[in-house]
Write a structure and sequence with these properties.
Elements (H helix, E strand, L loop, with lengths): L8 E5 L6 H14 L7 E5 L5 H8 L4 E5 L16 H6 L2 E6 L2 H6 L4 H13 L3 E6 L3 H5 L3 H12 L11 E5 L17 H18 L2 H6 L2 E3 L8 H5 L6 E4 L6 H8 L3
Parallel strand pairs: 1-2, 1-8, 2-3, 3-4, 4-5, 5-6, 6-7
Bound molecules: 1,3-dihydroxyacetonephosphate (13P).
Length: 258
């Protein structure tokens, strides 16, 4: 495949962390620390309640805003849900869809993920579709089949020309830190192997040109000390960072560390 050089994207997923004040403070610090970064795209994804105020902080800077989830209907009687248009209205240009924590704790299926992806495309909100296998699946050597199915079902009925709104995040569940110090990041070699497989799957589903234009982020214990090795790999086009994105200093070291 003929890879064209892509601008890397480093995204912070704050998950269920930070009060409004803490979120605004962290965003303000990141804005200052990262103001000189020109060759990378930067995204922060705070909890819903902080989106509007964080946007006020980062508006006009080189940091973009994203949400951690979205619903698949535009409006109506869906208590507790938020639509792509509502997210755009408060300044979001991205949303994370199908994170493994949502799949595990909220039983999100590939079908639900696909409905969310398709409404985001229709509303021109960029979607970061998360895929990734469990430790058991990797041990049984079914990890590629599992990720292929997540891609095929998650992107069902998505057209080639709509893929400009899609970013993929490969997050092996066993590598996500979850506050557990025993979790280990994937080796750069293992991550690259899966990223190449994901790109090949996209090429089969769409075509080579489309597959080469999609950014594939790595997520799972990305830290200041391993970002360089991961980002040196051909098919790794950025990162989706959890734990190490909570502290502005460590997030800035990741963004500037490659
Ligand atoms: P950690 O960086 O804490 O492993 O989390 C990764 C992740 O789930 C990002 O979405």
């Amino acid at each position: 495949m003929n890879m064209k050089k892509m601008v890397p994207l480093i995204a912070a997923n704050w998950k269920l962390n930070k009060t409004l004040e803490e979120a605004v403070d962290a965003a303000s610090m990141m804005k200052i620390m990262l103001s000189d970064v020109k060759d990378k795209e930067i995204l922060i994804c705070p909890p819903f309640i902080a989106l509007a105020q964080v946007y006020n902080v980062i508006k006009g800077s080189n940091i973009m805003l994203g949400a951690q989830d979205v619903f698949w209907e535009e409006k109506g009687a869906f208590t507790g849900e938020v639509s792509p248009m509502m997210l755009k209205d408060v300044g979001c240009s991205y949303v994370i869809i199908g994170h493994s924590e949502r799949r595990e704790y909220f039983k999100e299926t590939n079908e639900a993920v696909n409905k969310k992806v398709r409404l985001c495309i229709a509303d021109e909100l960029n979607a970061i579709l998360c895929v990734g296998e469990s430790f058991e699946q990797r041990q049984k050597k079914v990890h590629k089949d599992f990720v292929e199915k997540e891609l095929e079902e998650g992107l069902a009925r998505v057209k080639r020309e709509d893929m400009k709104h899609i970013t993929i995040a490969y997050e092996p569940i066993w590598a996500i830190s979850s506050g557990d110090p025993n979790h280990k990041p994937a080796t750069a070699k293992d991550a690259q192997e899966m990223h190449a497989f994901i790109r090949k799957t996209l090429a089969n589903m769409f075509d080579d040109k489309t597959a080469d234009s999609v950014r594939i982020l790595y997520g799972g214990s990305m830290k200041p000390d391993n970002v360089k090795e991961l980002m040196a790999k051909k098919d790794i086009n950025g990162g989706l960072v959890g734990g190490a994105s909570l502290e502005p200093e460590s997030f800035a070291r990741i963004v500037k560390g490659f």
